[in-house]
Amino acid sequence: MKPFVFVFRDPNEVKRTATHLSWFPDGGRKLAVAYSNLRFQGTSPFTCLDSYIWDVENPNRPELTLKPSSPLLCVEYNPKDSHVLIGGCYNGQVAFWDTRKGSHAVDTSLIEHSHRDPVYKTVWLQSKTGTEFFSASTDGQVLWWDVRKMAEPSEKLILDPTKKGNIAYALGATALEYEPTVPTKFMVGTEKGTILSCNRKAKTPGEKIVATFSGHTGPIYSLQRNPYFLKNFLTVADWTARIWSEDIRDSSVMWSRNLPYRLTDGCWSPIRPAVFYTTTGSGILDIWDIIFKQNDPTLSIQVSDDALQSVRVQDNGRLIAVGSATGTTTLLQLSGSLYTLQKNEKALVTAMFDRETRREKILESRHRELRLKERVKSGVASGDNQQAETVEEEEDLVSRAEKEFYATLAAEAKLQEGKKGIQFDLLDMEKKDFGKDDIAGNVSIVIDEH
After folding, report:
1. Whole-prediction pTM value?
2. Is there a contact between 189 and 236 (Cβ–Cβ < 8 Å)?
């Protein structure tokens, strides 16, 4: 296949944002695109409600039109049945389609049992029937559904960080992450920039919210686990992309610098564990390779003059689709170096994640030690000897943990002296695979005359 770009344009006169993309699960021959106007109450009465399924080899007209009751903010193919899709609507309803039955939704949730705000994310669940999914909205709720009974949700979780189930304190959800190999766990990205780690099978609603991760200063637009290292996950929000470890809650383990443009979406490469992609409000697609560079993108491509809003990589990693604020979806073919696993890549990424996680643990321990010393001073000043003794015991534990950490580092350093191969491979990789000339050719673009 020759390098190319196909452009799929919103066929309507009033252009809308391409808010979400979903690849056809059987070979990636089709692309479902959800279209919606994201400006609150700014929608013209003449704005079309339709979303479309495109054939990747025919950019001239959609293969199928999806007709929802309200504009779609998200759409998702069923990985077990490629004829079935689910979508989340602007008015809070969810719906599902069977492409064999035409353009209209087979069933839609009742408005009185649906979300009260736009549905920003829907995800299929791992189940025997392949008919279950869940949805998240800025109304502060996560709802579970079964397409065989769409009248009302089968389960509900209020995202109240106080764990009291109070909707008044709930955090609005803007992103969802679900890993089928860990079917009881899921993660939620919120409007306030926090990430909630949840367990669906916990005994009480309060116990379902297991942990909170804080670090962003704006809504989480993308949240995804690394496909090779499930403990590590990517978030995209404000002006930064961050990589987290489930073992560290106070801080991410890696992050980009504050970029000069707002980030709008992101995703991991399904093939290379070191590569991920982000889109920006300035129309740029950034390609990141954390082995080569951590703080800045490895390559930036000006895809559009308009803001980019969504990105999704084909399962085989060869094609990437990006959607813009004016309804244009651009399809690019990537070079082989971006969808071919590099030599020793898994080992290098493993070492990098482990090193950064240990570093954050040391910093976390140091911060805890400083806080304990402050408590000691205040305890002595108030004559609270019992508190001071407890603090001293905790300080001993911190010191012991630091000694064990440095001992581990020393042992690893000795082990690495006899294993220089990985280092030489890394240098060779930087010179050959990631050289400036090769990087510039990572994505070749030829505009289709259509």
Report:
1. 0.82
2. no
